Amino acid sequence: xxxxxxxxxxxxxxxxxxxxxxxxxxxxxxxxxxxxxxxxxxxxxxxxxxxxxxxxxxxxxxxxxxxxxxxxxxxxxxxxxxxxxxxxxxxxxxxxxxxxxxxxxxxxxxxxxxxxxxxxxxxxxxxxxxxxxxxxxxxxxxxxxxxxxxxxxxxxxxxxxxxxxxxxxxxxxxxxxxxxxxxxxxxxxxxxxx
Length: 194
Known about the structure:
Blueprint: E1 12-19, H1 29-41, E2 49-55, E3 59-67, H2 68-80, H3 90-102, E4 110-117, H4 130-141, E5 149-155, H5 161-171, E6 175-178, H6 183-191
Helix pairs in contact: 1-2, 1-6, 4-5
C-alpha cells in the first residue's frame, strides 16, 4: 500500500468527498459512513490539511482545506451532521475535489482526494461524460504537473464500481469497495497512504 507514495511521512493535502444522495439513507449507509469518516479523521496528523465536501445534485464545500490543528473540530462536527437527499453529481464532485487540491499549488505534500459514492452519476452538469473527468487526471498521472491521487470507495452493491475504479486508476490512486459493515476498515486502509 505504501508503495504508491514516496517514502517518508510527508504531510498531506486531502479533500474528502461524501455522496449525500437520497440512496445513502438505505440501510443507514449515511450513518455508517459518518462512523467511518470519524475514524478516518483520527488518522490525520495536526499538520495535515483536510477539507470536506458533500455532493448530491449539488456540490457543497462544507469545510475548506486547512490544517487539522485548526479545523479538526469543525470537520468532526460537519461529519456528524451529514444527511442524505436528492441525486448524485459524481463526475462534477470528483472534478471539484481535484481542483480544490490543485489550487493549493503545493508540491511538497501528498495531494489526494477521497471520494465515497453509493451510486452512478445522475446529476452532473459540467462533466456529463466520464471522459471529461478522466482526461486531466491521466495527464497529471503521466507527469504533467503535480500529482493528485484519487482514492474511490464504491459503497454498497449499487455503487458504480467500474466508473470509480477508472477514476482512481486515471489519477494513479486506488479503488476500494465497502459496505456499512466494512466502511471503517476501508477508511483505515486508505489512511495508510498518509
